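Example record for the data management plan.
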Amino acid sequence: MKIACAPVVALFLGVLAPACRTAPASSVGAQPPNGEVWLTDQQVSDAHLTIEPVATHAVGNDVVTSGKVTFDDLRVGHVFSPVTGRVSRILADPGARVKKGSPLAAIQSPDVGNAFADLDKAEADLIAAQHDQQRQKDLYDAHAGSQKDFESAQDSYGKAKAEMERARQKARLFRGGGADAVTQEFTLRAPIEGEVIARNVNPGAEVLGQYSGGTAVELFTIGELDRVWVIADVFEMDLGRVKKGAPVSIKVVAYPDKVFTGVVDWMSDLLDPTARTAKVRCAIANPGRDLKPEMYATVSIGVAGQNALALPHTAVLRIADQTVVFVDEGKTAGGQRRFVRRIIAISEDEGGDLVPVTHGLSAGDRVVTSGGILLSGML
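Corresponding structural encoding:
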């Protein structure tokens, strides 16, 4: 942490100057040693310094990373049109609850008429092929026709049956969608029960069918948001500590004071070759529907940790190549508060709000956890 706060320090010193002039008489002329700052109680109050004792905390109990909210893919349906045509009616609006099979939109499409016309033609061709096959069989049995003609008729009959089955299956697909052979209207229906999350089409819009060979556009999104997934990226160095079933805490920018909880329910076996991360999926309860797909999230995954002396990150200052804190060492003979700069060693391998202290402090030492940068500017 580089010290680059001259304007703030100058303002702070300006605030403290009057108080310095009213220091007790016994302290007049006394100068603090190098690495110490002496302040009156009033100056400490004016500076809004926060002082906390060093204590043992559980550290390294979380792996903190980033993630993104997505649908639970077993609880969402992405609806495309199987036919090419024009949307004639919208039958479901965003926010509406729909059952499986409920109508969403009506599409007038020549594909519907073509499908039923193909079925009629296939039925006629099958009847003709069947008659020809029977006629050639009778001639062959009476030794009035060649075997070649009989076998050719059998082949034509088999092809007609296959074409008939293909046309019947295609027509059944359209009938299942509520297609009307007269009006050539196809009814798009919900594949699952849920809420209409999004609608991307309006009446009169031209849509491309999935079976037309082009790139079809998603018309409706049907799903539930009472349970969502958060896909997080866990670095290779942390993978050994993250286990399936581990507790998870989620925070998002939209609700900074709210924590969403869940568990890890899947871990990828593959690493991203560039970022050196693996995907971890977290199942999160979302009864208030606050979490929305595509939101970015801060993900804290619970892992096995340890107990150690620890400080908030805000207490630690970087000055050149040294890591220091300011310790409240009590009062001078003149009644001023002594804040002593002390060099410490910390472990930065663990994430979270606390940083373990490996050298330089003892339990009970009173450390400035907020405002230390202002004291550094007074040295």
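Summary line stored alongside the record: The chain has five helices and 24 strands.
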